[in-house]
Known about the structure:
Layout: H1 3-29, H2 34-41, H3 44-65, H4 76-82, H5 85-99, H6 108-118, H7 121-126, H8 137-147
Helix pairs in contact: 1-2, 1-3, 3-4, 3-8, 5-8
Amino acid sequence: xxxxxxxxxxxxxxxxxxxxxxxxxxxxxxxxxxxxxxxxxxxxxxxxxxxxxxxxxxxxxxxxxxxxxxxxxxxxxxxxxxxxxxxxxxxxxxxxxxxxxxxxxxxxxxxxxxxxxxxxxxxxxxxxxxxxxxxxxxxxxxxxxxxxxxxxxxxxxxxxx
Length: 161
């Protein structure tokens, strides 16, 4: 199995885990049980951490696929800048298209600002107790959705896994 396939497989695992936690959280919220509601509310921070890590791994997969050395950082902004220009342009277009649903004036400059805001999410949210944090979850979702878009992310050959 090549490096890109390994990295994107890990990214998929963490992305799938966020989906599972979200489904479980929604099911718990539907229960008429205070304890279930409490458990559901505790899912938010792990989902942020897992989504941020999935984004990191998808970016590292893109960098690996282009034949570049993968930086050993968690910084999403640094990793995004290391993705080749043609892929970054596709990602920008996708993020802008999705962001226009939230902000009718959404553009590349706002994408860059939002990437910088979430750049350290993996580190900040897994140690959320160390300081007060805030995050635009909608942008983290857009970023992850763009990284996993089938028109941008090359398919994995199952024979390579």
